[in-house]
Amino acid sequence: MKVIVHDLQEKSWQALGMKLQEKDIVIGEGIEATERDIGKLIGGCRQLVLISRCVYGGFSPYIQSVLNKCRRHFGPLLEIRHGQTHYQVHNGNKNEFGMVCCFYGDQITDREEESARIQSVSDGISLQARGVKIVFFNTIDALRNCKEI
Question: Which structural domain range is residue 30 located in?
Answer without folding.
Answer: 2-145
